[in-house]
Amino acid sequence: MGILERKIRQKENMRTTIMAVALQLVKDEGWQSLSIRKIADAIEYSVPVIYDHFANKEDILFELSLDGFRLLQRTLEKNKRAYPDPFQRLRAYADAYWNFAFKNPEYYQLMYGLGMPCSGPGKIKPEFNTFRDHIGDAIEEIAQDKKKDESEVCFRTYAFWSVVHGLISIVMMRCSDIDDSTMNKKVLDETVEAFIKNL
């Protein structure tokens, strides 16, 4: 391996380390407490080393959010292959999205800006629409099978996403008067079933 390749690999390894440490700090202390200084202290390097790899904290947050979207995408793709029937696929997507949110709350909060400023001001994340695109495809397939007006697909897609994301947000931000996560999942399941019946 040449000197240039070694330097590129070292830079990539350092970026990966910075992001992993940032995520661990967030898991331990929350998003609001994350700082460049804390990351530098945790990896035992000086602050300028962090700035050699990322422009600022928002740049780190942006990259971490993309990692979250990629993880969600892989989960949804597994469901896409496992459920050829669009009705079953839509249910599976809702469950996968719910499970992803509560298994990876730090990612979910960052990805959708829950309880924190959005990361990377001015940056567009095409990945933001990962879930929308998957459920939209399933809803469009259902509309075609039922010979329904496809002009409603966009509306129904956003309505479905709003229901699932809204309930997750309520539970995650602890604004609900229902403290039982089983009850919340039951609300999700029944709402998804009612929605699917009306497609």
The CATH class label of the largest domain is Mainly Alpha
Query: How much helical structure, as a percent, in the residues?
Result: over 70%
Shape verdict? elongated
CATH topology of the largest domain: Tetracycline Repressor, domain 2
Keywords: DNA-binding, Transcription, Transcription regulation
Protein name: TetR/AcrR family transcriptional regulator
DNA-binding region: 35-54
GO molecular function, one term: DNA binding
If you had to describe this structure to a student in words, what would you say it looks like?
This is TetR/AcrR family transcriptional regulator. Keywords: DNA-binding, Transcription, Transcription regulation. Pfam families: TetR_C_33, TetR_N. 74% of the residues lie in helices and 0% in strands. The protein has two domains: 1-54, Orthogonal Bundle (Arc Repressor Mutant, subunit A); 69-197, Tetracycline Repressor, domain 2. Mean pLDDT is 87; it is low at 118-122. By secondary structure, it is an all-alpha fold. The protein contains nine helices and no strands. α5 packs antiparallel against α9, α7 packs across α8 and α8 packs antiparallel against α9 (181-197).
